[in-house]
Amino acid sequence: xxxxxxxxxxxxxxxxxxxxxxxxxxxxxxxxxxxxxxxxxxxxxxxxxxxxxxxxxxxxxxxxxxxxxxxxxxxxxxxxxxxxxxxxxxxxxxxxxxxxxxxxxxxxxxxxxxxxxxxxxxxxxxxxxxxxxxxxxxxxxxxxxxxxxxxxxxxxxxxxxxxxxxxxxxxxxxxxxxxxxxxxxxxxxxxxxxxx
Length: 196
Known about the structure:
Strand content: under 5%
Distance between the termini: 18 Å
Mean pLDDT: 89
Number of strands: 0
Largest sheet: none
């Protein structure tokens, strides 16, 4: 996609692997959309409206699948491809970013644990409207924990890590980052090609 497509109001610009840092930000936007979906699901479950249960549980399932697939790839993009490059090439300009990366990796492990708890709980949550108040509250609490973890995490990466990477990494390293991100999604991209 060319730069001209960035401003086509009929087709929003979505970064691709040639702009891996932009693509990482776009991934964060998709994560935020999934978090908002889960928040709406928690509200719907709390309201007791059983008419929307199939839509609510469909949305919960879709969000879970997103975190289990795209979310895992995103974490690998950062920890395997981006963070090591920043450690090696960041120098003095990247010291703040380097200091933040250890905390970000700890938050990734916390997110993995929370997703595991969330998935296990959702698997036991009755989808027929018979969930009791304790179960609904537990669902809401898990969603609140996920959003409380992700939102500042995303903010730190978007405002510190990615801008520092854009400043200090040579173009060849950014290109290699994009190639590694594409390779991680090879199977998915091949399935998309088959569907076209």
